[in-house]
Amino acid sequence: MAKEHLHPTMEEFFLFQKGDAIMTVGKKQIMCSSGDFISIPTNTLHSLKATTDIEIITIGCVIK
User: Fold this and answer.
1) Is the pLDDT of residue 53 over 80?
2) What confidence tier does 64 reach under pLDDT thresholds 50, 70, 90?
3) Beta pairing class for 37-40 and 2-5
4) Side by side, which strands form the sheet with 46-50?
5) Which of 34, 48, 57, 62 would disulfide-bridge 2, Cβ 3.0–4.6 Å?
6) Is the pTM of this model over 0.85?
7) Going by C-beta distance under 8 Å and a sequence separation of 6 or more, which residues neighbour residue 12?
8) What DSSP letter does each residue of the chain carry, written as one string?
9) Per-residue b or e along 28-53, where b marks 16 or more CB atoms closer than 10 Å to that residue's CB
10) Distance between CA atoms of 21 and 25, rounded to whole angstroms?
11) pLDDT digits (tens, 9 = 90+) for 2-14
12) Cα–Cα distance between 17 and 29 in angstroms, integer?
């Protein structure tokens, strides 16, 4: 679980490898499962709640 937060200088990307989760991006809830790719722009509130065991790849890219 990742509580709601934002990154003022970083874009964040999530690639779901296994399992199911709910991502909240801004005010939108997204049901995520294996194969899904989610992009979070800088300065965007987001959170993650796994509903099953999950495996994800996360990438953060600093934007200056």
Assistant:
1) yes
2) confident
3) unpaired
4) 2-5, 46-50, 20-25, 28-33
5) 48
6) yes
7) 39, 40, 46, 58, 59, 60, 61
8) -EEEE--TTEEEEEEEEESEEEEEETTEEEEEETT-EEEE-TT--EEEEESS--EEEEEEEE--
9) eeeebeeebebebeeeeebebeeeee
10) 13
11) 899 999 999 999 9
12) 19
> What's the rounded mean pLDDT across residues 1-29?
95
Checking DSSP bridges between strand 37-40 and strand 10-18, what pairing results, if any?
Answer: antiparallel
Closest CA to 8 of 31, 54, 38, 40: 40
Both tokens of 54, joined, read 């999950």
Q: Which two tokens stand for residue 62?
A: 């600093």
